[in-house]
Please model this.
Amino acid sequence: MSTTEPQHGVSTGVLTAMYDAAKALQLYPIENEIVGRSLTELQSRVTEIFEREGGLAVWVAGNYMFVNDIQVRLDLADYAALSALREALRSHGIGRIEFLPRVRTDDWVAFLTGLTSATRPGIQPLEAFQARLSDAGVHRIVVGPSTALFSGGEDSDGIEAARRTYAYSVQVARETMNGLVLGKAVGAQRAERAVLRVVDQVLKDRSTMMGMLTLRDYDDHSLIHAVNVAILSVALGQHLGFGKQQLFELGFAALFHDIGKVLIPTSVLNKQAFLTDEEWRLVSQHPDFGLLIMFDMEGFEDPPYRAMLSIYEHHMGAHLNGYPRVIRRRRQGLFARIIAITEAYDAAISNHGRQFSPCSPDEAIRQLLHNDGNLYDGVLARAFTTMMGVYPVATVTILDTGELGVVVAPSSNPNALSRPLVRIVATREGKRIGDGPIRDLTEVDPATGHFVRSIARSANPQRYGINVSDFVA
Ligand SMILES: [Fe+2]
Ligand SMILES: [Fe+2]
Model:
């Protein structure tokens, strides 16, 4: 059962209904039938949300919109309407709208006509809009300024929350692993709470959570790996439209996918040289060990069967040529196929595999895409790429303007995978900027019709002395 699955549809629905009504009011007199119909549609969408969720609040932050704290995905069908609505809100300086219960049609008319009317130069647009609403007697629609999510410097709230969630998850993973090593009974509740926090944080602001993958403040790379794979898996699950319950199960499986390694001596796990056959046999048993450990974890209402299965299957390979070996043909489960991809990505961008130096995020994406389909599920690998963008969050990029930037969020336009939001960290003259402005690479210069900035190539942060986590985590 999933209560949140249709959430995206409902959120998009209410926003497009707002746009349609605003458009109708702009084109036709108020008594026109089309206006009436669009307002009725809007009212019914709003009532639906009130009934489901008890309230309605819309936020705009950078290129993103949120309905009741959940980021609205812009898909191609709604992209034009939603980005027009976003721009209209922005032009009036509106970042937040709170709709109180029993919003009336008159309120909507005043609000929406205000939205489509031009702002007057020299007058603070948000104050003018607020005055306009109060003149019209509208008290059930309250507008406020933008949250500072993308305005640099003041965005610490979201980042702080993401950092706390990350730290909590690392701590819980550490306690669980230490407890298991000592043979103690380990309860599941704290771990479940950590996973729920990861799910909430990813749903709230995926890009900020992605930035946390660059944190290297923790000594134990197996903990970082566990938490990173949980974040990436939940994010991919969200991208695939999973409901909250499924995201929770997937996140739980991902956090503990390598838990079986606690039964393998660290001397073997950390060995720099090639493993002997005997050592390899031991390491390749970690999926079996993980499954057994899950049976022993206490405090579940029901054993987490789906997580257990995916822990067992995560190295099986999409074509079953991994381990454990299968005797009868079967299909590697969906969660295991997801975890196989996210854990390969995390391993590629991290220093974990001590034999190799880490890849840049965009290089890791390319490698995943060009896997011959033997190791990973090709459809899921492509979905992962669409979600991450060609240049994932934290990629250091050299722009065609000569500026240096760090990717902070993928483009909200699904057609612009190689045009993310980038924080400028050095000018074309090479001068470092501490907390530089965020630029949207889909921005077009109206004079020339060309993009203002494009990515020329990605760069190795070490070469430029950049600590990426300073900018995204
Ligand atoms: Fe593993
Ligand atoms: Fe792993």
